[in-house]
Amino acid sequence: MTSEVDAQAGAARPNNEAPFTLDEPAPRVLGFWDQSAFWANLGVSLLAFSGAYTVLAPGADGRPTLSIMAGIVAMAVGTILGGLMLGLAAVPGARTGQPAMVLLRGLFGARLSYAPTVLNIAQLVGWGTFELIVIADAARELWDGVPRWGYVVAAGAITTVLTIWPLGSVRILRRYVTVAVGIALVYFYVQLLREPLPDLTQGSWGGFWIGADAALAVSISWVPVAADYTRHSRTERAAFGAAAVGYSVTQIVAYVLGLLALALVAGDSAKVFDPFLNVTLGVVFFAVFVLREADQSFADTYSTAVSIQNLVPRADRRVLSVALGVIVTVLALVLDIGDYAGFLSLIGSVFVPMLGVLAADFFLGRRGRRGWDASRTAPSRWGMIVAWAAGFVVYQLINPGTVSRWAGFWQDVRDALHFGAQSWMSASLLSFLVAGAAALLIGRLTKQ
Questions:
Q1: Is residue 131 part of a domain?
Q2: Which of 18, 234, 327, 339 has the fewest CB atoms inside 10 Å of its own CB, making it the most exposed?
Q3: Per the record, which residues fall in region Disordered (predicted)?
Q4: Residue 205's domain spans which residues?
Q5: SS3 for 28-89, per residue?
Q6: Are the beta carbons of 381 and 109 closer than 8 angstroms?
Q7: Are 242 and 32 spatial neighbours (Cβ–Cβ below 8 Å)?
């Protein structure tokens, strides 16, 4: 009976669309340009404008530590490193045909993969909610004739529709949206560079790696979902190149534009959209960014549905997508997520070391060479959990973030260990390397 249901579902699904359940094979239909357009569009986010101040390493008083020029360099370094990490996360999906959370069965074991899966679901619901809030707030900047809830509901509806046909949505991005976004970016660069900019070198280079880690954390936020899309890639090379290059280039372009806008409003992040809206035709071109933001919420919501399938493999992603679309819409109507920088820091501290463990084990470890076990009976590998935890601790010791109680706890740990974080230390890089090295060492000692 089950096989008949699966056969009927497969017959109802177009051959070039994502499977409804995990029991169906993933079609390899996305080429390099399809994927490049997808990642490039994700790199151009309204968060790159509204959150540009995060790469300036704001202190406890909220004032930037870095100069605009230092922030641009820190952002570029962090984005390039994050893009390379994103590319690494893309390859296993293309090689195995498995989504991201299912890949973790081979890393941690089937049952232990449930823990990071639940964590990923929670953070993706948070991101999806946050994106709808950002879209609604930006739309209100364009025209306040519609109440905020109206924009939230509209954005939620568009997100849900895109999520039901994910691969078709990716192809639409390549054909239409990417061109419009490119034109809008060029237009705003021309307009903003014509304005009298202040001295971009005024300020410090202290806290450089804090700014770089903030930009890297944005890239890393896509690591837990990369394989959800690259499992449909025709080649591993296309998956790596599109993710690493496509995303990095546009994130750098968008963040530089956001930092220029921030400079024009004297560092007031609450007014960062003003330079875009005040130029000739600014409202028209800014509307392109607002509409394009829906692909961010689409990616978050679709990957949430696919992550849930690691827990419930036979669940239909279409049903999950509709339910999740309703959930994030309701949450966006009732919540106000304000601690963006703290949110990014916590995400980075979890998924940077996890990627270090995955990359080391998949590309260099014995398990990766023998074949990746993504079955429902994959044995538990507690050693990889230990390696992940080691990287997580390193991240927190260097950069515990800005959430007061959490940061206070790790400050107490640092004091007990007589450890002082130095300005040259990158929490992301060191946690990635420590987690990866621990994974290789534990793998050799335990022969897992």
A1: yes
A2: 339
A3: 1-20
A4: 23-339
A5: CCECHHHHHHHHHHHHCCHHHHHCHHHHHCCCCCCCCCECHHHHHHHHHHHHHHHHHHHHHH
A6: yes
A7: yes
